[in-house]
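Consortium newsletter contribution from the modelling node. Members have asked for a concrete example of what our holo predictions look like. Here is one, prepared for the zinc ion complex that several groups have been discussing at recent meetings.
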Amino acid sequence: MEAARIIQPNESLQIQHLETPKPKGSQVLVKVNSSGVCHSDIHLWQGGYEGPNGQFLKTTDRGVKYPLTPGHEIAGTIESMGDEAEGFSKNQKVIVFPWIGEGLCPACRIGQENLCDKPRSLGIYTDGGYAEYVLIPSYKYLVKLDEDMDADASATLSCSALTAYGAVRNAVLNPYDNLVVVGAGGLGLMAIQLAKSITGAKIIAMDLDDNKLDVAKKNGADNTINSKKEDPIKAVMELTDKMGADAIIDFVNASKTVETDMQLLRRRGKLVLVGLFGGELKLSLVSMPTRAYKIIGSYTGSISEMVELVSLAKRGVIKPVVSGKFKLNQATEALTMLKDGKIIGRGVINP
Ligand SMILES: [Zn+2]
Ligand SMILES: [Zn+2]
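And here is the predicted structure:
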């Protein structure tokens, strides 16, 4: 089979001819139809990302090994199964849960493999979906798709949409809550669509771009704030009877946005940090207990959340936007375009 692989960080991906894996035991071989191109693939390609104080955090220090076939947003069909795999048959359309753990740590034990102490995520620690076929360690990580569901759009459910859904779940919204969504890009939009359909919260979208805010409004935001043009603190207080936000989901998560978030929170308010922009935060420590704030980091989601998300997608609650389609030999081009901000919504590779 052919695979587009990172041989060395920062070099163009190479097409390599690899032996097609043969599934054993509970393993399943999936024929890849679509593999989403995610921002974290850029980190793998660049060999790391910027951490605190501008320090470069290397992927190899986190256990990533090259050469690597990236790709963790995978939709395809069942090609073959080991003799202990069950519940699926050849050509069944599926998406893959990529956030695989080692199965033994306390997180894995309670079904939160996405937070495993020794992660084995597909396309990050093991070969992923930028290939004609991908070997899945167990049939348990597959979720069936309906025949009429678009594979390209469905692929994004396992990372970007799951991250948005996990964040909305972490915000634990009650009816009548005011939710502020910071950043109305791809993830922010999906969070707005999801929060609108599964909670009773009033949704305030915040961004610097009027076009994105218009789209946010069409997708369920009750109010929008352009924080470049108006004072976000004043605007949120006006929209919440001077109480502030019950919950904030920050898809940017930079020093500047989080400093503002802290001033928007109502007593008992929850701040869910999702974005990977990075930076630091100074906290007023006495306010934390007296105002009973909660600051929560949210990373992808569990397989049970992905199952819920697939059922929401079947009902049309979320509509991921796929705007760029690439062949395997265009993987470098896809990553470059994403890095340069030239892909609106999601790009996918169709091997
Ligand atoms: Zn991703
Ligand atoms: Zn684990």
